[in-house]
């Protein structure tokens, strides 16, 4: 008989989403977001945030009854091509139904929900020690040795997962955990029952406006630097969810700030050096090295791969005033654009924008290709917004626009600028020595007001891959995903500190 977690999982997956049909104000209250959102702002935020659903436990089975099996002679069931919801019709003492159907293995999660997996796909994803190196987590089996007409000798539903016997000189048996199959179902996709493909651990992106000033994310320096890594995990989790996070109690020295950056990963060296420690002396040919005001922007639009994170720490500001820091959630501004100006949003998602960094005689940076990249970048599979890339000051000549697009594009960036500069979007904060801020450069735009006097700033760039790797490793430790939890008891699954069924693999 299946253990109770399966029944609870199926019930949770079959229920309507708890946010369906709710009004936007209720949604904000439900997720404690009301302090961050301006009343009466566009309803798109509800649409945008509904994709960041509360964590739902993945499908896992641990039955003790005799398992179901299928052979080549099994009859062909009838399947729906439409994704189906898991329902409570699956009795708790039943295993998924298995059927061999031509070049596919079909799995019936319940009477209404089926997944189909091609034989070649299943064989290619065998993770036995002969096919998948358990230590290096690299494929050993030669994909190109798989016959196009491969057919299993036998397929069986077992308590641990789908067990498939393949034809070979020596019988080869592959095991695929149920939770892993459900997560990776592609015919049909069942991802509507799961978290976003870009989520790490249980984190969800939270959009915010100017009211985040009432309760911004912050963590203590001593917690981030603690050897148990819990504070570091919380810090990076905040950055993932909000796009930025303050660190309080940082010693006002370059050395302490650099060590803070190194807690995440190695520092990315650019034309500005490795670790910055600068004033408004134009030591580099960039307006950041002046006293001028800087509008909301992301850095490195002139790079093919802009940096992922930026760490800023104001070490001192004497004999003057001004220099407030500006933060704008680019995803929030984009959500407003998409709701109110969908055609303009589409242009910002399609039209590439060239950029350059040319203030140093020895350097001339442009992205590759030189035509640049759109302001708004989306996941090609899910359509989810994953990057904002905007710095009007570094923009190059827009000579690739067709005549009919010129005025439309300028209208679009005018609307975009209105979204970025609205009082609802802008979060202004006066940084003080001892408080650093870490910013997601792929999401949150930053700027500053003009200032006078002597102002000393330090900080660093960190690559997006180094940041995501560190957060993923910490998530494994403090918030493992449902697949890792469900497969931990399978023999030879945890090798060299990592589960071979980790969803990132």
Automatic annotation (TrEMBL):
| Record's keyword terms, sorted | Carnitine biosynthesis, Dioxygenase, Iron, Metal-binding, Oxidoreductase
Q: Where is the composition biased (Polar residues)?
A: 57-70
Map out region (Disordered) in residue numbers.
57-80
What CDD domains does the record point to?
Answer: CAS_like (cd00250)
A biological process term (GO) from this entry: carnitine biosynthetic process
Q: What EC identifiers does the entry list?
A: 1.14.11.8
Judging by the UniProt lineage, the source's domain of life is Eukaryota
According to the entry, every stretch annotated as the TauD/TfdA-like domain falls at: 218-461
- Quick one: which pathway? Amine and polyamine biosynthesis; carnitine biosynthesis
Cite the Pfam families for this sequence.
Answer: GBBH-like_N, TauD
GO cellular component entries:
mitochondrion
Task: List cofactor names only.
Answer: Fe(2+); L-ascorbate
Q: Span of the secretion signal?
A: none
Any one GO MF annotation of this record: iron ion binding
Reactions mediated catalytically:
N(6),N(6),N(6)-trimethyl-L-lysine + 2-oxoglutarate + O2 = (3S)-3-hydroxy-N(6),N(6),N(6)-trimethyl-L-lysine + succinate + CO2
Q: Which residues form the Gamma-butyrobetaine hydroxylase-like N-terminal domain?
A: 101-182
Q: Which InterPro entries match?
A: AlphaKG_dependent_hydroxylases, GBBH-like_N, GBBH-like_N_sf, TauD-like_sf, TauD/TfdA-like, Trimethyllysine_dOase
Q: Which Gene3D superfamilies match?
A: 3.30.2020.30, Clavaminate synthase-like (3.60.130.10)
The family note in this entry says: Belongs to the gamma-BBH/TMLD family.
State what this protein does.
Answer: Converts trimethyllysine (TML) into hydroxytrimethyllysine (HTML).
Q: What is this protein called?
A: trimethyllysine dioxygenase
Organism annotation: Gymnopilus junonius (Spectacular rustgill mushroom)
Q: What is the lineage of its organism?
A: Eukaryota, Fungi, Dikarya, Basidiomycota, Agaricomycotina
